[in-house]
Amino acid sequence: MIIRERYINELKAFIDKPLIKVLTGIRRSGKSTMLKLFKKEILNKDIEISQIIDVNLESFNYAHLTNAKELYDFIKSNIKNTKKHYLLLDEIQEVKEWEKAVNALFVDFNVDIYITGSNSHLLSSELATHIAGRYIEIPVFTLSFAEFINFRKYYFNEEKNTTKQFQEYLKMGGFPVVHISDYTLESAYKIVYDIYSSVILRDTLQRYKIRDTELLERIIKYAFDNIGNTFSGKNVADYFKSQQRKIDINTVYNYLNALEGAFILYKVPRYDIRGKEVLKTQEKHYLSDVSLLYATMGFKTSMIAQLLENIVFLELKRREYRVYVGKIDQKEIDFIAERNDEKIYLQVAYKIESKETENREFYTLSTIKDQYPKYVVTMDDFWNENLYGVKHMHIKDFLLAESF
């Protein structure tokens, strides 16, 4: 297995610290593999194997651990002495009221706890207050472009040709399982569709008790068709009304919330640059991996600009930026990204093929009068490196940059 160093290093930074380490992300993004790799790191510290309690709660071997009491009793029975024990609990959301068990284990025993979950609302429930102030969340995403290159080198000894590799990454997406064997596009999309189906069934329909599967699929199609476009629950309801299908706005928001909870979608709020406030309507939504669109609706060349935007958004999230869609007067900035005292502005386009596009992408950014970096990211082969004080970068170079 190839080591995804960023996540392993982040876990290593918190080893033996009095915090519960929580890895979250969509199914098959690599959380379970991360725990297996981290188990080796623990063993390298001269820890005895008996001090590691490794439980995959999706395995039939642990199907009897359905609630907090059963999980607590099972772990307790496996702690044989006062030495520090390392608890690796995979897919913790399968246990009802898991927070109570994890909190009690944290309080009652000399343990270092690592858990994974496939639901973004894992830590926002009322029950999660049991571990409030005692955990650190580590989001796990599908492969970045840099990680994709590492996978291609590790599994196929592929030479580095970043232009060609980005084309491949754009078409294949970043689910790790797709890149450990030499799959055709058709086979890769079938694998991703199976992941998608599992997420819809287990992390959306069952977890949120959604009964109208057909309506959920319609909302998913609407959201996928509008990746990178601003829309609200009212827009969705109005669209269905035009299709002679009446739907309550609250239902739309509940279904979108469920899709966000399952990490199928990320919601990005808008930020008024002049008013310096986060706006409460007309958010954008992006996919946790672009291959979800291909697997369900086919590869759409007409959406390539939105797909590039989606890829840039995910890279910003991986680098722990807070991301907003910018509004300046009546114009839109694709992304404002903030991290500590850093800020960058970004426009993403397929190619700058006209003066009108150049003005829209470059000039709009130049109207923001502050000292923070501003970028236009495209797939152009040739360009002015700097226009109106705005830096122009090829997307592959932007994704591989050490810093922005």
Quickly describe the structure.
With 404 residues, the chain is α/β, with parallel strands linked by helices.
What best-fitting shape do the alpha-carbon axes yield?
A: globular
Share in helix = 40-55%
> What structural class results from the helix and strand content?
alpha/beta
What characterizes the major β-sheet?
8 strands, mixed
Low-confidence stretches: none
Number of helices: 14
- Along the chain, the helix and strand elements come as HEHEHEHEEHHHHHHEEHHEEEHEEEH
Count of extended strands: 13
Give the overall average pLDDT: 93
Radius of gyration, in Å, reads 22 Å
**How many domains in all?**
2
Please explain how this structure is put together.
By secondary structure, the chain is of the alpha/beta class. It folds into 2 domains: 135 residues, Rossmann fold (3-Layer(aba) Sandwich), CATH 3.40.50.300; 254 residues, no CATH class. Helix content is 41%, strand content 20%. An 8-stranded mixed sheet has the order 7-6-8-9-10-11-13-12, with helices on both faces. It has a 5-stranded parallel sheet with strand order 2-3-4-1-5, sandwiched between helices. Helix 1 packs across helix 2 and helix 3 packs parallel to helix 4. The longest helix is centred in the middle third of the chain and has 21 residues. The mean pLDDT is 93.
List the helices and strands and how they pair.
Blueprint: H1 5-13, E1 20-24, H2 31-43, E2 52-56, H3 68-78, E3 85-90, H4 98-108, E4 111-117, E5 135-139, H5 145-156, H6 162-172, H7 185-205, H8 213-225, H9 233-242, H10 249-261, E6 265-272, E7 277-287, H11 291-297, H12 304-318, E8 322-328, E9 331-339, E10 342-348, H13 355-366, E11 374-378, E12 386-387, E13 390-394, H14 395-400
Parallel strand pairs: 1-4, 1-5, 2-3, 3-4, 6-8, 10-11, 11-13
Antiparallel strand pairs: 6-7, 8-9, 9-10, 12-13
Helix pairs in contact: 1-2, 3-4, 7-11, 9-10
